[in-house]
UniProtKB/TrEMBL annotation:
Coiled coil: none
Compositional bias ranges of the Polar residues kind: 1-32
Region spans: Disordered: 1-44
Family: Belongs to the FPP/GGPP synthase family.
Protein name as it appears in the record: Polyprenyl synthetase
Species annotation: Rhodopirellula europaea 6C
Length: 659
């Protein structure tokens, strides 16, 4: 729940090299420390008396904190360290104290949320492992009230009060339930390992959250201070106006763009399509799947060829395109556009009346936000074809369901729809010509750069020479990933007025955020991706250029380098599993996982430095929030090995003109 990481928006971990310097200078000597090991910081105080005393002390500290904005992870850590130092207590209690202070910080805000708008999150490990009758599904454990463990007891109390209850370990569905508008606060139980990361984004978004840590990190039959849990569940409802800024209303506003009524108003369908089979009548995007129970939240099945039987062939393309546009993803790009607009207009959308404020946002701004997602989804349809990826959002990709030719056409349709959302005035949706041209120019530039980056990747993939330098890899990353962040930010800022003074900062911030994000994506490839690729190491098998590959070629000895290159040859006789095992071994030998993490740290520091210099406080806080939420590092890739560690890679200034 509380990230134990260093590096702060207000206190950058390091000052990056001059952005105007030549391309491949600046070699950092040490890591920023963002990823130091935290296992030694997660000790739970041994006795109940000590835990109660420390909790009281945490409540006193929290009572003095400014509640106008959510605390950053670094601010929380600094406060917790100071408390431990003043109490002459060991650093090992840091994680536990952070959870306690955070819970006390949000206690009043959580009390202002009625129980029926709260979510209670329970861990699997409280169950009795032997003979537990509960079954698992994609949302967690379907707990039976058998009385064998405390899960059923806690659940009964919570449900009697009206809570939604979920038994899962930091499931991503938690955020979906919140953004979907079904709950406004979370109470939870988990070990410190899970609390360090499970609900991190919930807290950063400014959503009231309280937790009780388990007494150990064991995964079977663990224990918890049960009276504390019951006390937390029974937090009485005390109506009060929200005091702490929150992004939840903006997140919900981004999701609502794809709901039936609003979507139809923003992007009226040109064709009528009546789908057969499950789902039945005229297709409409964004149908809500949650009704009264969080565990019923599920992905709406993708449109199938069978459902298009009898549909006018001319209407079929629109039906497939709108179906894909509305499904999956986090809608992060529309959120960025709406949040940037709100920040430039004073940031009232993050206040207590945020929902009402955002209801008054002009449709023109919403259409700009929707267009960003439309372009993004078009690129995903085409990327899945080009990369040979079979799944997207946990379901067969568009080309797997309808064939390559149809999928290409669907992507093209989405591109056209994206431009159409911006290029035409609608009644009550007038935008001055200069603003409209600026937006179209920004999106066109982003579209061109993305295509250049993807093209460079494809040319490398199909070339005979598989050599690649880290600089080349990072240039591809800057072209492929950064333009979407830049276009989303710029669109929101420009819709609020003159954005000329922010063009350069937005460009630099987006470039570094996008590069760091893409490196993280490559690292995640070695951990698998349940939502998309479903296969670890897919980039290697698919022959895609990555920074990991480039760093390995740069740091391996000639013999190992030749071995690595041979693994990419079309006539390589090794099985996929053998290839991946060998590649991982060579990556670990070259220390590429650690060097990649160091580069993430450095590009993050660059992005934070840009944010530090933004005068508009609301926009500055948004940029910090994006850094903390977009750059979610994988827990672990590579074994670390005992091989000699090469020097840190160069932090590269990427000379890409954004507009």
């Amino acid at each position: 729940m509380i990230g134990l990481s260093t590096g702060s928006p207000s206190l950058p971990a390091s000052i990056p090299p001059n952005e105007n310097a030549s391309s491949d200078v600046s070699v950092p000597g040490t890591s920023s420390g963002r990823r130091r090991k935290t296992s030694h910081l997660k000790e739970v105080p041994e006795t109940l008396a000590m835990r109660e005393s420390l909790r009281d002390r945490c409540a006193q500290v929290a009572a003095k904190l400014d509640r106008s904005h959510p605390m950053t992870k670094d601010e929380m850590e600094q406060i917790s360290r100071r408390m431990l130092e003043e109490a002459d207590l060991p650093e090992s209690y840091l994680g536990w104290v952070m959870v306690m202070i955070s819970s006390e910080f949000w206690a009043d805000a959580l009390a202002s949320v009625p129980p029926e708008r709260r979510l209670f999150l329970l861990p699997h490990c409280l169950k009795h492992a032997e003979g537990c009758p509960a079954e698992y599904d994609q949302f967690g454990m379907n707990c039976k009230e058998c009385g064998a463990c405390s899960i059923a007891d806690f659940r009964s109390i919570a449900e009697d009060m009206g809570y939604r209850v979920l038994v899962a370990e930091g499931s991503p569905v938690v955020m979906k339930i919140i953004v979907g508008g079904y709950v406004d606060a979370v109470v939870g139980v988990a070990c410190l390992n899970v609390l360090e990361k499970a609900i991190d984004k919930v807290l950063l978004a400014g959503i009231p959250c309280m937790a009780v840590p388990l007494l150990s990190s064991d995964c079977r039959n663990t224990k918890v201070d049960e009276p504390w849990v019951e006390q937390m569940i029974r937090t009485p409802y005390k109506p009060a106006a929200a005091k702490t800024k929150s992004y939840v209303h903006l997140m919900r506003a981004a999701g609502l763009l794809f709901e039936d009524t609003l979507f139809e108003r923003l992007a009226p369908r040109q064709r009528e399509s009546h789908l057969s089979g499950e789902g039945g009548n005229a297709y409409s995007p964004g149908t809500r799947m949650l009704d009264s129970t969080p565990s019923e939240n599920g992905a709406r099945p993708a449109v199938t060829p069978e459902q298009l039987e009898g549909v006018d062939p001319i209407a079929a393309t629109e039906a497939i395109a709108l179906d894909f546009l509305a499904r999956g993803g986090k809608h992060s790009r529309p959120f960025i556009t709406l949040a940037a607009y709100d920040a430039m207009m004073g940031g009232d959308g993050t206040g207590a009346d945020g929902e009402d404020v955002l209801n008054r946002v002009p449709d023109a701004v919403r259409r700009a936000a929707l267009s960003i997602e439309t372009f993004h989804k078009a690129s995903l349809v085409h990327d899945d074809i080009e990369d040979g990826d079979a799944f997207r959002y946990g379901q067969p990709a568009v080309h797997q369901r309808f064939g390559t030719a149809t999928a290409i056409n669907v992507g093209d349709y989405l591109i056209g729809l994206g431009y159409r959302l911006l290029s035409r005035n609608m009644m009550g949706d007038e935008v001055d010509a200069e603003t409209r041209v600026d937006l179209l120019d920004s999106l066109a530039a982003a579209h061109v750069r993305l295509s250049e980056g993807q093209g460079a990747e494809l040319l490398w993939r199909d070339a005979k020479d598989r050599r690649l330098t880290p600089l080349d890899a990072l240039k591809i990353y800057a072209l492929k990933t950064s333009p979407a962040f830049e276009a989303a930010l710029y669109s929101g800022v420009r819709m609020a007025g003159d954005a000329s003074a922010l063009v350069d900062p937005i460009r630099k911030f987006s470039r570094n955020l996008g590069v760091a994000f893409q490196i993280i994506n490559d690292l995640n490839d070695w951990a698998g991706d349940d939502s998309n690729k479903l296969t670890a190491g897919a980039d290697v098998i698919g022959g895609r250029p990555t920074l990991l590959w480039a760093l390995a070629l740069q740091h391996l000895e000639d013999e190992d380098k030749d071995t690595l290159l041979a693994l990419a040859e079309p006539d390589c006789e090794l099985s996929d599993r053998e290839r991946l095992t060998t590649v991982r071994r060579l990556y670990e030998k070259a220390n590429v996982f650690e060097m990649s993490m160091q580069l993430i740290d450095k590009h993050q520091a660059r992005a934070e430095q840009v944010a530090d210099e933004i005068e508009n406080e609301s926009l500055r806080r948004l940029l910090y929030f994006l850094v903390d939420t977009v750059l979610e590092r994988p827990e672990s890739v590579g074994s670390g090995g005992d091989a000699e560690q090469p020097s840190s890679p160069a932090v590269v200034k990427i000379g890409v003109v954004a507009r």
